[in-house]
Amino acid sequence: MGCLCCVSGPLSVTVRTDRGAYCSGELMTVTVYANNQTSHRILGVELELIQDTIFIASGGKRTFTTEILATVTKAGKTPNAEGNDFFEMVPVLIPSLTPTMKSSRCIKISYQIKVIRHCSKTSCEKLQNQCVLISRRFQIPSV
């Protein structure tokens, strides 16, 4: 993935979370790996936990809302000799939230992590990953 402010070379970014579903109060850890062959240094990343809600009226009219629930910023380090930047296990605390809802006819709630990469010129790349929040009553017991 590239962006206009970084046209001086290829840039590939991989974003991973430690798992796919979380409960309120848990820590989600996010790892961002960037192979940066551009002339712009990555100064850091900003992670946003976002709630997307769609309200569906009986006539079919839809209202869409997006809310940023949490923001975490992580400063970058000096990249290695190959130009790789690594932001390992950045913690994001999951606040008390409604679980993901996709099967309801009148409301749909989903969550995503947006990663904004800050380079030496500007904030120039945004990546989004979906994540699922579950209710504690459905939490799988640890063994």
Report on the structure:
The chain has 143 residues and is mainly β. 0% of the residues lie in helices and 59% in strands. It has a single domain (4-128), classed as Immunoglobulin-like (Sandwich), CATH 2.60.40. The strands form 2 sheets. The protein has a 5-stranded mixed sheet with strand order 2-8-7-4-5, with no helix packed on it. The chain has a 3-stranded antiparallel sheet with strand order 1-3-6, with no helix packed on it. β4 and β5 (62-75) form a beta hairpin.
* Relative strand content: over 45%
| Mean pLDDT across all amino acids | 78
SS element count, helices = 0
Oligomer: single chain
Radius of gyration: 18 Å
- Secondary-structure element series: EEEEEEEE
Helical content band: under 10%
Regions with pLDDT < 50 over 5+ consecutive residues? 1-6, 136-143
Counting helices, strands and paired strands, the structural category is mainly beta
What coarse outline follows from CA principal-axis ratios?
elongated
Query: How would you sum up the major sheet?
Result: 5 strands, mixed
Determine and state the CATH class.
Answer: Mainly Beta
**CATH fold name, please?**
Immunoglobulin-like
β-strand number: 8
What CATH architecture would you give?
Sandwich
How many domains, as an integer?
A: 1
Read across the widest sheet, the strand sequence of neighbours is 2-8-7-4-5
Alpha-carbon distance between the two ends: 40 Å
